[in-house]
Amino acid sequence: MASKQGVNAVLTKSLRRLFKRVRGVVSGPLLHIATLMGMTQPSSRIEGLDGLRAVAVMTVLVSHIFIAVPGVLQYSIFRTLARGGFLGVNIFFVMSGFLITSRLLQDKESDGKINWRKFYVHRALRIFPAVAVFLVAHYFYAVRNDFPLSGTAANEFAMTKATFLQYANYAVYKNPMTQFVDNVSLWSLSIEGQFYIAVPILILVLFRKNRHHYWPIGVILLSIGILAVQRGLVYNDLGWFATYIRTDTRIESLIIGMLGAVLMIKTNVVKPVFLRYASFPAVIVVVLIVLYGRADGSFMWFGGMTLFDVACLVIVLALAQKAFFASSILCWKPIAWVGVISYGLYIWQIPVFRIIQRHGETLSNTERFALAMSVTFLLSAASWYVIERPAMRSQWAHRLAGTYRSKAQ
Hints:
By secondary structure, the chain is mainly α. Helix 3 packs across helix 13 (272-292) and helix 9 (214-238) runs antiparallel to helix 14. The chain has helices at residues 2-40, 49-64, 76-84, 88-111, 116-145, 153-164, 168-174, 187-206, 214-238, 240-245, 247-250, 252-266, 272-292, 298-320, 327-330, 333-340, 342-359, 365-393, 395-401.
């Protein structure tokens, strides 16, 4: 009996040792795979990204507030942001390039193909309903107030056509301070729209079957270099405004965001540890360039903008990898909410400020400021809750995209 118990004890110990060894052999690779999947599959909702959108849109908004409230220019921070606040658009560009490319690559990996219909319908429903309402509202304002002076409905139709056909940046370039002065911010929507048209094709071409991932990365890096050089040449030949608004001089920001998505999803070179340490100097770079950069200065167009975009990409990647040192600040609900309504804030801010500039001469600076901010935020919140979110969530939207599933299914 004792010998039988001894044999059982030996067998039990042997089985335990074997189990530990097998678990060690299997769990190591499984743990690595799980970690890699967590690194390379960014969720549809990255924590802190709405907060970063809030930073971007408020940088733009504060840079334009002097239009409605000229008195703010007596304060140095407003004078500074009036020069460098345009870089908030770059933050949006980098984020858009990263997110759109991430979604396309994930769809291609999971389904083996790009769902063109779903992609373009989702993009159209995200952009056009809110901007269509804005353009209709501005049309009635223009007709009612004879704006611009001796203007006609054709002026409004010209901007509507340019916005929906995705060439508003060139329309604004030709008429920056005439009939398009209220709608000038729509230029950036067209550059994003042009990128949305091209990026699925680029993904399809660059990431064909059995192709090494570093070849497409080399192509993207080469494109960024060429576009950076092109930007400097345009600045020398045509000046800062052409460089500021043309597609070939601004789309680099979106491509830098695209590069970040490719590096994170297709390679293992993006390390959370590196991002945790790199994100702080990246924030310093972003802040310094916003404070000291100027759209009419050569630094921005000869490498400064590329440096700024790369710093923004580091921040976006750090958020995606949950490695950003200040993510708790960006996740604070009031800040995140501003990011949620940031699209409305972006398209409504300049027209609201211009209208107050024209019709608020009798108001004090304090009254103008309060009116400008409250009206802009109210219109933007209404745009999100009444137009944007319902449009994206509707059954009609899902049917149009081919993603609708009935309850019976």
